[in-house]
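Q: Sequence in, structure out?
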Amino acid sequence: MRIISETTAPIGSGQGAIARLACLALQPVLSRIVRRIATRHPSLFARLGPHQTTDFLIDAVELPFALHLRPDPQALIFRAVPRAAAPRAGATIRGRFLLLLELIDAEEDGDAAFFSRDLEVSGDTEAVVRLRNALDDIDGSLAEETAAMFGPPGRAVLARMRRAYSATREGQETR
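A: Exactly. Output:
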């Protein structure tokens, strides 16, 4: 398995510089995460079928960058990219970071998030459905597995993010 982790970005404004720096800082972490998930969950690729070579752009709207995923076990890509330098994606998934995190672990209903317009999907929807089904088939929590890679600090950060997401959702529901 070859992992591609290049980070490219055009030269631009201060916002672009922040995005580029964030991407550079995150890349070693993203590479470690994708290697671990690929090693521990090889069945994920089989579930994707012909969509292993689809480029997914996962856009957490409040972050200064997006994530580019190509779940091809022969040339696996998972990298942070400034939005202005994002590759052409076969499928784009856009929403709040914590919603996307909850969707990874099937703790949030993707259909409900889509129809409430909290989640936007564009491009090859079959690829997105296949990715969703592949993630649903994984036993356990990918978010918790990833947090555990970083020990107690990683688990603490995940717990704090989940509490913040719950508080935000409760505030939105009472409006």
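Confidence is low (pLDDT under 50) at residues 2-12.
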